[in-house]
Amino acid sequence: MSGFLGRYEYQLDDKGRVGLPAGFRRAAEGESFVLLQWRPPSLTLFPQPAWKNVERRLLEFRHTAPEEYEHILWLASSASEVTPDKQHRILIPGFLRDAAGLDGSVLLVGALDRIEIWNPKSFTDQVRPGGPEFAQFAHQIFG
User: Fold this and answer.
1) H/E/C letters for each residue in the chain?
2) pLDDT at 8 over 90
């Protein structure tokens, strides 16, 4: 998998489905996904290989930190397995659309090993790198 890169603005249809961009479909290699909200206000769409890593960590955490059981249970109960249909659309369940404030336009954002789904306005308001901290971060990555 080469990774999920870029951003694409698409429309939700009347049933709450959104299409996946061709580049994201190629990176996912026909996989199904797990969709959940672990970091509001966006949703995260994990392809199965990335989700398996998360699931493994959740299981380890459940065994080593039993006091966190309710958090793990909440995450698992709010996750939804989604499989693209023949038109490469995924259904975003109503409770997740509501949680992320999705209605009409949605922004699909590549986040390397996963896809984030944002309300476009929320993304613009919250994701604004800049300043000396970003310059230092970018230098550490790109040299």
Assistant:
1) CCCECCEEEEECCCCCEEECCHHHHHHHCCCCEEEECCCCCCEEEEEHHHHHHHHHHHHHHHHHCHHHHHHHHHHHHHCEEECCCCCCEEECCHHHHHHHCCECEEEEEECECCEEEECHHHHHHHCCCCHHHHHHHHHHHHC
2) yes
